[in-house]
Amino acid sequence: MNRRLFVPLAAALLVTSVAGATWAAAGDSGSDSPDTFAPPGATASVERRDLVQHETVDGTLGYSGDRTLYAQAMGTVTELRKPGRVVTRGQALYWLDGKPVTLMYGELPMWRPLNASAPRGEDIRELERNLVALGYDPDGDIEIDDEWASVTTAAVKRWQKDIGLPRTGSVEPGQIAFLPGARRTGQLKTTVGALLQPGAEVTDTSSTTRVVDVDLDADKQSLVKRGDKVEVELPDGSSINGWISSVGKVAESQTDPQTGEPTDPTIPLEIRLARGVKTGGLDEAPVDVAIQKDRAENVLTVPVSALLALAEGGYAVEVVDSDGTTHLAAVKPRMYADGIVEVSGKGIKEGTKVVVPE
């Protein structure tokens, strides 16, 4: 009968290293052995699954859609939102000369007075869409389009009365700001009491969508693509799932503040997080991101601890026979991930029982 040996497997013998894995060595025999062993203790089944190797990179937890809010009219700042406050449609982003500057949803910025004299345009459509959404067209008279109508004027007057503006029926630059959806206030760029000129920065804003930003080394660009799933480890040690929503195409270098030398080029990744996950109120927080390094699909696998290194070279697993005895079966290990290794060999199939250390 073969005598089992328990010898550590040197990492140098592996094509790739297995971090944290324990390897056992066994036997004087290489291929399938006619010898049998005593009934095993703990066992595991050969399973068919996908294996994914990951590489951990640094990321920053924040919010998507950064955009600076600029003043569009001259006046004195009388009130500002606190950083972190979420402003929704119809609410004030800040106050100028005691009057609110109201958020309305849209992509085209406010750039001209909007009234009955204004030529048709997409900004009129944006305004009408917001007036309807805010309830200032109670009878449903507004047809949302690029043209100003008398019912648009009526809706504007209702809105102006509601927020304490003169009922002129004309919306002036500086009374509203079109931004894409609800906005989260970021770093303030001015202070209460400051006299603003048109074009002055007021505050940074972002969407309310949580994202993780990664500056990925440019030489790792081939590892990622849009839609890849990732795992994000938060500062509290918990992990959440996400997916790569965008991959930059242009590599950029920064300047090291200490040496003044350019850093290695990187490409930006944006990672969206799974719906409903809780990330707390942290902003600009460092996180670890596990990106896919390699993948093997629908392969036969066993726990790494089931592998035995044979004294004369090669590897085997101890297979449990139908009568409860065991024998060694030679296997070829391939890809490994998370304590699991892909194997192939004679007699190795899905459901085969193998011995694992207790």
Task: Characterize this entry briefly.
With 358 residues, this protein is mostly beta strands.
Structural class: mainly beta
Helix content estimate: under 10%
Order of helices and strands: EEEEEEEEHHEEEEEEEEEEEEEE
> What count of structural domains?
3
The major β-sheet equals: 6 strands, antiparallel, barrel
Low-confidence stretches: 1-34
Number of strands: 22
CATH topology-level name of the largest domain: Muramoyl-pentapeptide Carboxypeptidase, domain 1
The fraction of residues assigned to DSSP E strands is 35-45%
- Backbone CA Rg: 32 Å
Identify the CATH homologous superfamily of the largest domain: PGBD-like superfamily/PGBD
Mean pLDDT: 87
Protein architecture, described:
This protein is mainly β and 358 residues long. The chain has 3 domains: 11-55 and 296-355, conserved putative lor/sdh protein from methanococcus maripaludis s2 fold, CATH 2.40.420.20; 56-63 and 209-295, Efflux pump adaptor protein, beta barrel domain (Elongation Factor Tu (Ef-tu), domain 3); 67-206, PGBD-like superfamily/PGBD (Muramoyl-pentapeptide Carboxypeptidase, domain 1, Orthogonal Bundle). 7% of the residues lie in helices and 40% in strands. It has helices at residues 122-133, 150-163; strands spanning 24-26, 43-45, 47-63, 67-70, 75-80, 86-87, 92-96, 99-105, 176-179, 183-188, 195-196, 201-206, 210-217, 229-233, 239-247, 266-273, 285-303, 308-310, 315-320, 326-337, 340-344, 353-355. Strands 3-13-16-15-14-17 form a 6-stranded antiparallel β-barrel. It has a 5-stranded mixed sheet with strand order 9-8-7-5-11. The protein has a 4-stranded antiparallel sheet with strand order 4-12-10-6, with no helix packed on it. The longest helix has 14 residues, at 150-163. Mean pLDDT is 87; it is low at 1-34.
